[in-house]
């Protein structure tokens, strides 16, 4: 995987004096820097390009968060939620997945990095201290890839020690990259979970452009699991329905469990492809060779386009069977599905409270020490 390098840097004057800004500039020697008091005119310029989204990704915008960085993950009330929270340290993604919802969701085309992390973490610490009896599962991967820019931002050097010291929170870093070098020298006592999105190899090659290959992702997960005290997670999300998909998913599941010790896996999620209707024309324009927009779709209860429910259930049943065949006790859950679908797949009664309990218990299984070289 080729690591991202911007063509230019736009600098919010308010970001100039934060230490992270200078660290980022030092890591990007030779990249032109333009101080930009007003970002809107720059955004308007990019929107005139033939491919505004692609053009915007070539610019790194350094700015400050204004107290909005920590919030609940936005989830449709019609589907079971897990009380997940996000810490927005950045917005935008340098990777190019054809189905990425950010193409239709974000208003700024630029890769945006918030440099005032000390303020953000101070605010977060206050929240964690105020509710000591509550357990928080927190991620940074809702509006960006959690690791693909880490060679530039070095966020892990700040976030991992912060969460290692918390009693009532864990951090999940979701990624499609293999950018783990900084993580290898950091210790979290199991309070940090590095999660990889996995898919069929054909999907990775055709739809997940600029991402690490599946081999690279599994190799990175293996190193994290065997060389650090962080735990790992995996997200088969989005599952994509196409001819022969069962054989391909069975193959990647076998490779996963051959590469990673199952006791280091915090959880695995399953979620079928879904997207806002506004994304369809963007996909057709930016990725004309992708067959995804032409699939058979039905509008779900949240307004997103989804596969028909009976087919989703078939895919979940197959994936569950394959995963349980390798790891009967691994924590397995569905992403953005209804109570009815949960019951079809797992049986029994399910609610937001039961899902939260399931994932909280999985998150609390802390690995107490860093593995030694002999282990």
Structural class: alpha/beta
Strand percentage lies at 15-25%
Number of helices: 14
Strand order of the largest sheet: 4-5-9-10-11-13-14-18
Q: Could you give the count of β-strands?
A: 18
Give the CATH class: Alpha Beta
Using the coordinates shown, work out and report the CATH topology. pyruvate-formate lyase- activating enzyme
**What is the average per-residue confidence, as pLDDT, rounded to a whole number?**
94
Gross geometry:
globular
The radius of gyration is 20 Å
Structural commentary:
The protein is of the alpha/beta class and 375 residues long. It has one domain (8-363): pyruvate-formate lyase- activating enzyme, CATH 3.80.30.30. The chain contains 14 helices and 18 strands. Strands 4-5-9-10-11-13-14-18 form an eight-stranded mixed β-sheet, sandwiched between helices. The protein has a five-stranded mixed β-sheet with strand order 2-1-3-8-6, with no helix packed on it. The chain has a three-stranded antiparallel β-sheet with strand order 15-17-16, with no helix packed on it. Helix 10 (245-259) packs parallel to helix 12 (309-326). The longest helix has 18 residues, at 309-326. It is globular and about 55 Å long. Residues 371-375 have low confidence and may be disordered.
């Amino acid at each position: 995987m080729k690591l991202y390098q911007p063509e230019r840097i736009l600098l919010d004057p308010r970001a100039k004096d934060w230490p992270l800004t200078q660290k980022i500039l030092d890591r990007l020697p030779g990249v032109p820097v333009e101080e930009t008091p007003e970002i809107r005119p720059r955004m308007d310029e990019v929107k005139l390009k033939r491919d505004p989204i692609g053009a915007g990704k070539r610019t790194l915008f350094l700015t400050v968060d204004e107290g909005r960085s920590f919030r609940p993950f936005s989830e449709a009330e019609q589907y079971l939620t897990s009380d997940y929270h996000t810490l927005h340290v950045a917005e935008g993604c340098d990777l190019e997945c054809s189905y990425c919802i950010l193409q239709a969701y974000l208003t700024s085309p630029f890769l945006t990095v918030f440099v005032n992390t000390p303020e953000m973490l101070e605010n977060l610490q206050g929240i964690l201290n105020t509710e000591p009896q509550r357990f928080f599962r927190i991620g940074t991967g809702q509006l960006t890839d959690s690791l693909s820019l880490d060679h530039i931002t070095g966020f892990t050097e700040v976030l991992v020690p912060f969460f290692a010291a918390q009693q009532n929170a864990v951090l999940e870093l979701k990624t499609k990259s293999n950018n783990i070098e900084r993580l290898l020298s950091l210790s979290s006592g199991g309070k940090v979970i590095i999660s990889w999105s996995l898919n069929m190899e054909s999907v990775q090659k055709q739809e997940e452009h600029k991402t690490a290959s599946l081999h690279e992702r599994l190799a990175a997960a293996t190193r994290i699991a065997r060389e650090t005290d962080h735990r790992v997670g995996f997200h088969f999300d989005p599952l994509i329905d196409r001819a022969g998909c069962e054989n391909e998913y069975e193959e990647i599941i076998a490779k996963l469990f051959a590469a990673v010790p199952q006791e280091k896996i915090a959880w695995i999620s399953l979620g079928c492809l879904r997207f806002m209707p506004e994304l369809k024309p963007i996909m057709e324009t930016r990725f004309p060779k992708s067959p995804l927009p032409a699939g058979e779709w039905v509008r779900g209860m949240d307004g997103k386009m989804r596969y028909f429910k009976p087919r989703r259930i078939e895919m979940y049943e197959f994936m569950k069977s394959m995963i349980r065949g390798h790891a009967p006790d691994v924590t397995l859950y569905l992403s953005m599905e209804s109570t009815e679908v949960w019951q079809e797949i797992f049986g029994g009664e399910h609610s937001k409270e039961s899902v939260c309990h399931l994932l909280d218990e999985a998150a609390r299984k802390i690995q107490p020490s860093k593995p030694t070289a002999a282990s």
